[in-house]
Amino acid sequence: MQDPVDARLVAEVSRDGRATLAQLAAHVGLSTSAVQARLRRLEAGGVITGYRALVDPEAAGRPLSAFIEITPLDPERADDVPELLEHLDAVEACHSIAGDASYMLFVRVGSPLDLEALIRDIRRAVRVNTRTTVVLQTFYENRPLVPAERG
After folding, report:
1. What is the pLDDT of residue 150?
2. Fewer CB atoms inside 10 Å of the end CB: C or N, the chain?
3. Interhelix angle for 4-15 vs 32-44, to 10°?
4. What's the rounded Cα separation, in Å, for the pair 2 and 121?
5. Taking the complete model, does pTM exceed 0.85, yes or no?
6. Number of other residues whose CB lies within 10 A of the CB of residue 148
7. CATH number, domain 64-134, options 3.30.70.920, 3.40.50.920, 3.30.460.10, 3.40.120.10
8. Phi, psi (deg, nearest 5) at residue 122
9. What is the dihedral of CA 130, 122, 62, 55, to 10 degrees?
């Protein structure tokens, strides 16, 4: 991101997706119409890809978080793991990773029994080995994404 005003605007929207145009304008020193035009350009250019509510996992009935590493049993098989797991609502994120495992999933479930059932569902959907790490406490997540400065 070349323009420092765009970078500040993206940082502000990342911090508060519900900020009004007037609030954003005050933060970046532009008129509301200029902010609106820049936001539209950033959205059209794919820099801002959407806006979403952050939901408390405990209030949503999914207080247990875990990371699940998965490694396909048959490396010769087509690599369609993300597509085959996409239907599992408890899988919040699927990352392709370097290392012994091929993918790292971040999941949220209601209980240890639900986690066990999810692991079983994953193994049914794709032939993989799994290694699960349960999250005991989260200190922060969903932090605002502030564009990197270019030197």
Report:
1. 65
2. C
3. 90
4. 45
5. no
6. 8
7. 3.30.70.920
8. -60, -45
9. 100
CATH for 4-44, options being 1.10.10.10, 1.20.1630.10, 1.10.340.30, 1.20.1560.10: 1.10.10.10
- Assess contact for 92 and 106: CB atoms under 8 A: yes
Quick check: 110 and 102 in contact, CB under 8 A?
no
Residue 1: the pLDDT is 61
Contact 94, 69 (CB under 8 A): no
pLDDT of residue 87: 96
3-state secondary structure of 147: coil
pLDDT tens per residue across span 73-123: 887 776 889 999 999 999 999 999 998 899 999 999 999 999 999 999 999
When pLDDT is cut at 50, 70 and 90, the band that residue 138 belongs to is very high
| Residue 144, pLDDT above cutoff 90 | no
Nearest to 123 by CA among 68, 75, 79, 78: 68
